[in-house]
Amino acid sequence: CLATLIIMLVGDTYTLINYVSFINYLCYGVTIIGLIVLRWKKPKIFRPIKVNLLIPTTYLAFWAFLLIFSLYSEPIVCGVGLIIILTGVPVFFLGVYWRNKPKCVNRLIESITCWGQKLCFVVYPQCGSAKEE
Questions:
Q1: What is the pLDDT of residue 106?
Q2: Which segments does the entry list as coiled coil (predicted)?
């Protein structure tokens, strides 16, 4: 998010749209790959909508073409898009993966979350832990 804000302030909107579109296509393809892997590894689980595997496979073929073409035609834009994605890795490890965090880190994360909720009007802020209520 911080990298995107910096790019918005420094660059133009067209460049930001190019970065985000590459990231979106990458995420769409990974989602379709996940769908195919789940259909292969867990064929018996309940699925409310089941499609023929020809549809996601065809989509993946076009997706691979678009991704390879994007990497070939604009490697810098794709590289910056990948860097934007990778800026989330430390956030994931600090906020999700690291289970035994000190209380001060938990309080910091909670206050940043509450501040972000108030700033963006995303959800009704419920600051403070459940123990206080």
A1: 86
A2: none
